């Protein structure tokens, strides 16, 4: 949101370099033919309410219940 890091660098730091550290690159951490990459879609102008009902978890509580988030994220696996 602050613009201190570009989207490209965010992906590099959080995906590509992590996969390289764990020696699973390019099987993970890259969108290439033959890779098993998970795709994340960011909605930078979205907001959402945090709720335990909307999480994919066995827990029925959330310490952030009722707070608002600024960026909506969809993970395609």
From TrEMBL:
Protein name: dihydropyrimidinase
PANTHER family: COLLAPSIN RESPONSE MEDIATOR PROTEIN, HYDRANTOINASE/DIHYDROPYRIMIDINASE FAMILY MEMBER
The reaction(s) this protein catalyses: 5,6-dihydrouracil + H2O = 3-(carbamoylamino)propanoate + H(+)
GO CC aspect terms: cytosol
SUPFAM superfamilies tied to this protein: Composite domain of metallo-dependent hydrolases (SSF51338)
Gene3D superfamilies listed in its UniProt record: Metal-dependent hydrolases
Pfam families: Amidohydro_1 (PF01979)
Cofactor(s) it depends on: Zn(2+)
Enzyme Commission number(s) of this protein: 3.5.2.2
């Amino acid at each position: 949101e602050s613009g201190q890091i570009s989207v490209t660098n965010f992906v590099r730091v959080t995906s590509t370099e992590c996969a390289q550290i764990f020696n699973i690159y390019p099987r993970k951490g890259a969108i290439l033919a033959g890779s098993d990459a998970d795709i994340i879609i960011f909605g930078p102008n979205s907001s959402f309410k945090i709720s335990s009902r909307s999480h994919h978890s066995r827990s029925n509580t959330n310490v952030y219940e009722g707070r608002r988030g600024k960026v909506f994220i969809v993970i395609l696996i």
